[in-house]
Amino acid sequence: MTDADSLARRVREGDLRLHELEDHADHDTAASARRQLLEADTDADLEAIGSYGFDAEAAESAIENMIGAAQIPMGVTGPVSIDGGAASGEYYLPLATTEGALLASVNRGLSVLDDAGGVTARVTKHGMTRAPVFRVSGVADAAETVEWVETNGDRLAEAAEETTSHGEVIGIEPYVVGDSVFLRFAYDTKDAMGMNMATIATEAACRVVEDETPASLVALSGNLCSDKKPAAINAVEGRGRSVTADVVIPGELLEERLHTTAAAIVEANTRKNLIGSAKAGSLGFNAHAANVVAAAFLATGQDEAQVVEAANAITTMDTREREQAAEASESGDSETVTDLYASVSLASLEVGTVGGGTKLPTQAEALDVVGVRGGGDPAGSNADTLAEVIAAGALAGELSLLAALASNHLASAHEDLGR
Prior knowledge:
- By secondary structure, the protein is of the alpha+beta class.
- 41% of the residues lie in helices and 23% in strands.
- Strands 1, 2, 3, 4, 5, 6, 7, 8, 9 and 10 form a ten-stranded mixed sheet that branches.
- β1 and β2 (88-96) form a beta hairpin.
- It starts with a helix and ends with a helix.
């Protein structure tokens, strides 16, 4: 087997290219050779990058030209009790981040949510999408293509589903713009995030469209999907999993633990997350839901670029009045207590528990912490559980930040934690 020094020398001499090293040595040796080259060419010291705790071959499907690993601190939040459509019981949520105070804030929120009786969460919609764009000669051909698609959905679904043992077509929505026809395919991808699955399946369906209609495929992705970009269609129609988490928090608990009131939190949410976001033209009406989602994605091996879609979240806060017996009252009179209803709805949370980065050792262990590594029984239940746990974490983050703002404690909290 070739050693790292020999590989590095052959690259310098032009005998090998960087991406060819694994053909001549094991994956760890190839990574070592690349580090040698970079250290010589850049004067960088790559000792830390080269200190990773897994077999480099395990990362083959996740990275090319590997030199090592980016090690991000990982912490844990929770536990919190979740009553979900898939999640049931107490869950921890591991988060990987370099933002100080984030986990402390989320953990504070989860503790309050748990003391309030736990979180209710539901995945309300599934649908990983891929939207190819076709060229036609004009609107007449566009109409002919759309009519054929609408009457032959079963045939397209059959062609698409022949490429996968797991994916299922759940809808095909046509859109016409002049001489362009877009077909937005939506798939139930079970426990996989499913982007690659949807792409391969859609390509097979496109061949049928080209054979049977005047349309010619221009691009397998026409950006109406829409992947890894801010897009109103994802905020409205959803992509991946649409998931909502909510809770009612007693007013006494808010004052004791968060040092504020339901009315103050509701006002902060309305003026900041709703009015402020509307004025900014934002697609997300929330405080920092993407913060929790990004940290959860890094910890559990999700596609971190899809945090863009996950930011399509709406946080709602409202007061709920409750009558309770007045303390130390001999007359039996009651008093009105104002509780807080809080929710976060993530329209397009794209997560999976099989495939992609979930196979990496660190990320697989993080999925074990949640209890969702691999395929679920029934299929899709593990990814649904992960979505509901992440939604609970996002709700905790929203509650904690809004409470800090409402009580004017945000700056002091960062200062106290030395961040």
